[in-house]
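Troubleshooting: if your tokenizer reports a length mismatch, compare against these two reference records.
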Amino acid sequence: MRRSSWLVLALIAGLLSWGGRTLAQDTLKQELETRYKQLTAEIHKGQVGDSGKVAAPDLKFVTFLGKSGSKQEWSDDVKLALTPFKTPEIAVTLVDVITKGEEATAFFSTKMTGEGTLADGRMGTVYLDRTERTLWTKTAEGWKLKSVKHVMQESRLNKRLIPFKASAADEETRQSIQQLYNLMSDVYSKKDWDALNKIIPDDFPAQDSTGNPISKKEVVERIKAGASLFTEPVVFINIQSMGRDGETLKVVRLATIIADVKLPGGLMGKLKYENVTRDTYIKKEKGWGGSLSEELHAVATLDGKPLPIGLLTGK
């Protein structure tokens, strides 16, 4: 497992890969939010079709665990998220937009709250915050939704986080992977860069949130740059979801860093940084070996207020 332990270090790669965002004009934001809300409202009500013709015919969907699907499978996945609720209150918010030519990438947060029952029978007030990364293209008929990726999720019951629970058959594997993440949390907290260089292989297979490959040199530089901003960071890395397909294991993990920080420009305060990454492992003769690490999403707050990721780099 040690060779694969480099995977978790991608948690800091996001600190520099999310800089440089440019918000689109308010009119574009309003149009995308209106169209997305119209389409998802129909899904939430169990309706079939797309009365507003918002989605492209070949819309692609990627699940939290990285499985590709169609518009129908996206609809089914959203409906599955609604299963625990009786009559949920649903609030959809456009968080950010990035434009590039005739395309726009928009991040939407869908918060669901209400009384409900979990799969294990526990009852109470259920809260779900689901973040999706969407890609839109401009056409003669307006902006069309081309793809949807489920990139972040937070679930609570009676205000308490709902931890991931593996099946009995996968519990030993979960414990092994979680132990690895616990060890790597300690490496980062101590800023042990010698250990870092020994752990990361030269052929480091990783991707940032846009799908671009990241080399070992880039990863090391990003990790050090991010860590230089923090004073005595406390790091937690926990499994949010896990799925096995034959000899392949997909693990979605949430890395949380809490630290005092001094940002470029003199801004100071208590930082909370969260990064979601999907790791792929391949079954080996002895345990699981790392195959790929894909950053999905990152968010940050300073003294409890939303903080643009770009401010962590000064870009």
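Reference record two:
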Amino acid sequence: MSDGPTPSQALRLLPGGLSEPIDEWDLDLPVLHRPGDLIEPIAVDAATSRRLHGIAARGRIPVLMACTLVVELHLAVSDLQERGASACTPTLDATARNARPAEPLSASTAKYLRALSTGRSARPGLPSPIGLPTRIVRRVSAQTLSAAIETADLPRARAWERAAVIDGRTLTEWALACALLQSSASADEPRAGRSAHGVCLPE
């Protein structure tokens, strides 16, 4: 498995981070990202910016949230493919649809989940940065970002992210944990039976 993009492929980070951070958890402002995420603004060309803003506009969410969601989904799907578990995708979709909190959520987490579910575009005049969480930016090259945009499935990304937040995991952690659980649960079943019931199988 690759440890990340080579220096020539790496995204160009903008110095200084977000110079005017918005405390969107206390104000009546659109939620831009997961609670607690540190965001690294990234430099993108005009075409990439337009495509990301288009995805965000169709989903009625801020572009920062849209960028993070499509990239995290792309990374998760890539990790599943690398492990021969891409057949898990329909099962993960069903698991995500059925995800429900088992206990009360914090106010910031609940607000983020509402933003994921209902959508709320950034207000005109407010900063609308394009960036990625520090926790994943090392894994993302310019080519990765382009591929994530090309294969963007925002409804799936929102559903998986919602389930991951409810489970207390990142999107990729949630996807891999579900795939492992599904594979473990089916380990003793006949192979034909597992395939017929759509359970994850190594490719």
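Descriptive notes for reference record two:
- The longest strand covers residues 39-43.
- The chain has nine helices and three strands.
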